[in-house]
Amino acid sequence: MLKHKGKILGYTILTSAMLLSGCGLLGGETKQKIDPPKTISVADPKESKKAAAKNTENTVKTELYLIDKNGYVVPQTLNLPATKSVAKQALDYLVVNGPVAESLPNGFKAVLPEGTDLSVDVADGVATVNFSKEFKNYQPEDEQRILQSVTWTLTQFDNINSVKLKLNGHPLTQMPVKGTPISENLSRAAGINFDLTDVVDITNTKPVTVYFIGGEEGSYYYVPVTRRVSNSEKDNIAAAVTELVKGPSEKSNLVSDFMSDVKLLDPPKVEDGKVTLNFNKNVYGSFEEKVISQHLLDALVLTLTEQKGIEKVAVQVNGKAEIKSDQGKNLSEPVTRPEKVNTGSF
């Protein structure tokens, strides 16, 4: 079941749709090639696969970072028309009352002001976005959300590592409404959905992004949250696991499947893009021995593959990998990041 410090959601209503064939998850890889991706093989009945494939012909799965009803910037994967200009199309779908209007998930809204026109030029890993004057017509409280949404939406693509912004052809060094400073190249390293709870001196900290669960019954989804950890933390992977175990802030609407007594028995081992984690038996939570929550696993893999160089996660308990997820998936092999995040409710 999903729980954290009194926040409990019935397990029976959380039937996971997050499994890919093999050891992947149904949801999103941080990077996607600009060319339309290959069809994803999903663990559905054959007839459902055929019907789904027919309905999604000439489309490309794209992550749009939209705002949910609680103000979080959240990836939602939609099937957009296939095009060579996928970066520009993705941002066009972030415009209020634009093409996304007919396909917005319940409770979500677009982030760019209505009527905003834009162009995107990609060169040497940098996407330069030029907005029309309408870009300035946003609410002050949405300023950070706009920066995060544009940055994370564009950096899902393989050939985009960072973003520059322009307004009517002039480089933006700060946002036009509240004046939030804009770094020369915006990237995911800056974070998203900042949680500064208990942070006293931000100058002696560094960001780490973890994934919790938001939404409500019938429409749960993963939410990236950036925490600040001490610069003295040398192992970023261990620090990320620690933040996952801490769980979301009590003031948030988010939940987690990690119990507070989960611990790593050994330092994380990284080799050739794979990280191996050895947990104590408390990682089983309320499940029987050798069974781990799929939601816990999803959050763990999404979190750790945000770390540079990490492509897959191997999970052990007391040094053994003879475990499976509560969805019946054998976890003897490493788990890869899903190709797209939040492809449907669970």
UniProtKB/TrEMBL annotation:
Protein name: GerMN domain-containing protein
Domain GerMN per the UniProt entry, residue ranges: 87-176, 237-326
Pfam families: Germane
Transmembrane segments: none
Region annotation Disordered: where it falls in the sequence: 323-346
